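Students often ask why we bother encoding 3D structure as a string. The short answer is that it lets us treat folding as translation between two languages. Here is a chain of 404 residues written in the first language.
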Amino acid sequence: MQDTGLAGAIVLAAGRSERFGEADKQLALLGNIPVLAHSLQVFEACASIAEIVVVSSRASYEQVQSVARQFSPNKLREVVLGGSVRQESVANGLRRQSALPYVVVHDGARPLITKEIAEAGLQAVAETGACLAAVPAVDTVKLVDGNRHIVDTLDRQRVWLAQTPQVFRRDLLISAYEAVFRDGLVVTDDAAAVEYIGGQVAVFPGSSDNLKITTRHDLEVATMLLQARQGSPRGGRTIAGSAVRTGLGYDVHRFASGRKLFLGGVEIPHEMGLSGHSDADVLLHAIMDAVLGAAALGDIGVHFPPSDPAYKDISSLELCRRVCGLLGSQDWGVVNIDAAVAAERPRLAPHVEEMRARIAGAFAIGHQQVSIKATTNEGLGFVGREEGLVAWAVATIAHPGAAR
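And here it is in the second language, the structure alphabet:
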């Protein structure tokens, strides 16, 4: 593709991850960033791609949106909700795209796509109108019946294993999906929809490394492939070949009348809020200081000074997203957050799960990477006298470099 900015990418991240376990595989860490982030970085770097639409599940929407904003800062158009099957998710993405000539559809669960593969597809589509990344079969391929009896041995020379990205003329893909939905057909990939209306789809070389993460084992394989690609050292204090640091955070705010109470990004019913220049979310402030401290980037007062009117009453969740961006700009990623908040009243335990979800979304990590503990001060001190609240946090971050 000679001209730049002629394609829009749809990155699919709406799967249910049923074979992966409880966590969303798109948000699992590969290296020191989420699986989804790797694909977004590749498309962000492709000059021929003008915009990116990410399709998310409803359950992971906030986290996916946070990842998309961080790792596609210039090209992200929108994060939309997916459907119950793949073709509904693609159709939802198509509806929100600009009217660009070409569409690139990619599974966010294929994080080891390279810029070279993406650009090969963008070159091929200009000639073919429809193409997909694929690799030739290396094993003998058997066709079996419902009883698992072999009925035929296929010619291996003619068998290719389909991957993504799949790249199409926009008008062709829209026509294909209109026909599929009209006729009640369910297809497993976009090429099948184009084939259904008689379109010819070419293949271009993908890569055996361009695997799709479905199970935990796949993630382990992808981690090893990424380590080999980066030339990361083995051994030492590393997480998947990454340097590791830990930071400590502490914050305290007194109660004040006439303000809403926010903790962990959640508005909590109470007769008083906390005094501060922002929303005074003491828990998030402690967490941000822990994260910034781990990266040796100062504290929240340095980055968001209380003297600056721009931060008056600002949501601390928004500040967390900015802190996440600061880390990402230096290739640091949050691995784990463990925090505690002390309050006599109100009772915080019923809100902890929502806090964890909000914090995970702000830092572009999985829900399982955030721990929040709520306690009282047994009536002692300023917390016991209900004069204010205090929070502590420890954050672990990682960087894909040599251990330091």
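Translate back mentally: The chain has two domains: 7-230, 242-399. Keep this in mind for the problem set.
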